[in-house]
Amino acid sequence: MLQAVARDYPVVVVTGPRQSGKTTLCRATFPDHPYVSLEDPDVRDFALDDPRTLLGQYPEGALLDEVQRAPDLLSYLQGIVDADPRPGRYILTGSHQLGVRAGVTQSLAGRAAQVVLFPFSLGELQADGCAPESVEDLLVQGLYPPVHDRSLNPGGWYGNYVSTYVERDVRELIDLRNLTTFRVFLRLCAGRSGQLLNVSALAGDCGISRITAREWLSVLETSFLITLLRPHFSNFGKRLVKTPKLYFLDPGLAAWLVGVRRADDLVHHVQRGPLFETWVVGELLKGRANRGLTPNLHFWRDRRGMEVDCVLERGARLLPVEIKSGRTVASDYFRGLARFREMAGDGSERGFLVYGGDREEQRRVGIALPWRRIKALVARND
Fold first, then answer.
1. Is the same domain home to 86 and 207?
2. Does 28 share its domain with 68?
3. Number of structural domains the chain divides into
4. CB 281 within 8 A of CB 354
5. CA Rg value for the chain
6. Which residue range is the domain that position 255 belongs to?
């Protein structure tokens, strides 16, 4: 997909969380582009002091890594690509979607294609022959490339990742004076992954104001650590929950933050279900992003507590998905799917139950899909 968009636009912007493989992918895809890292203090100072001269050194184009560190470059790129709009000249990467997207919208609208790169999907690990053997291993290891490429211990790697993120990236986005409180906030959010977002309760538990809590949530979303899943409520009556649900985008990071260090700990852990749901939601979001499609994911819940974990909008049709971490399919797993299909009528397709077992089962209201075969559902999400 990256090569395809580079044939149509003079600038391609690849965003995503830190350590998701943006630089590796771009350098492998565009090996002839000179590489310019704005993480290098000397290069960054050059870009901030004299962006025109820096870009003038690369008239045929370049790969500019972590461009959010010198956002003024985007304004100068506008004039360069307007004068010579050859496609694929400049490839940009960035780890903060807020600053990068704002700059693209203001300076490079119509000139740049934007691509989001998340950590690996399970399908990618399976294709490479390095997929975790159990669902517990998957949830603890997560999907970040370094854990799998270099066979690193996930506990140590995620600990360093959080320290680096908190100490460096967060300070770039907000005036953070109390790192300890922010770390507590981060852990509280991880413990709420898969739950309805109650900002007041979250702020109260952390000892901060609602305004601060919302600002910090925005920072986590901007850094591609969390996403807020909006409810689907069109044409389904009035008594539906309209509060978003909070999800981390990687189960391994969330597991580390809630104190899970070993796969064995997850067999009977209270966070097993939420972490499994976190992983499935992440797979569905990655599947769309990897094909250059916008998110189409929602959830459905009425005020009596009946719910469907995910609703995929497929044109005029809706595809409901229920998520259960248990290894055995229970009849009550399908209650939400049955209720949703009853209310949606002809607008609903036959649903899916993604569960922690190993056998596919055909049921009247939906298909029970083993966790290892989630790629079959991702492929349906077009």
1. no
2. yes
3. 2
4. no
5. 22
6. 122-380
DSSP one-letter string for 75-139: HHHHHHHHH---TT-EEEEES-HHHHHHHHHHH-TTTEEEEE--S--HHHHHHTT---SSHHHHH
Burial class of 358 by CB neighbour count within 10 A (0 to 12, 13 to 18, 19+): exposed
Question: Which sign, positive or negative, has the C-alpha torsion 197, 201, 205, 211?
Answer: positive
- The answer to whether the beta carbons of residues 179 and 167 sit under 8 Å apart is yes
Residue 314: which of 362, 365, 349, 360 has the closest Cα?
Answer: 349
pTM: 0.93
* 132 and 170 both lie in a single domain: yes
Same domain? 47 vs 151: no
Q: Which residues contact 17 (CB under 8 A, 6 or more apart)?
A: 95, 118, 119, 223, 224, 225, 249, 250
CB atoms within 10 A of CB 46: 17
CA neighbor of 225 nearest in space, from 96, 41, 318? 96
DSSP class per residue in 194-212: TEE--HHHHHHHHT--HHH
DSSP 150-193: S---HHHHHHHHHHHIIIIIHHHHS----HHHHHHHHHHHHHTT
SS3 content of the chain, % helix, strand, coil (to 5): 45, 20, 35
Q: Are 37 and 47 in contact (CB under 8 A)?
A: no
The mean-pLDDT minimum among 174-188, 193-207, 276-290 falls in 174-188
Q: Is residue 258's pLDDT more than 60?
A: yes
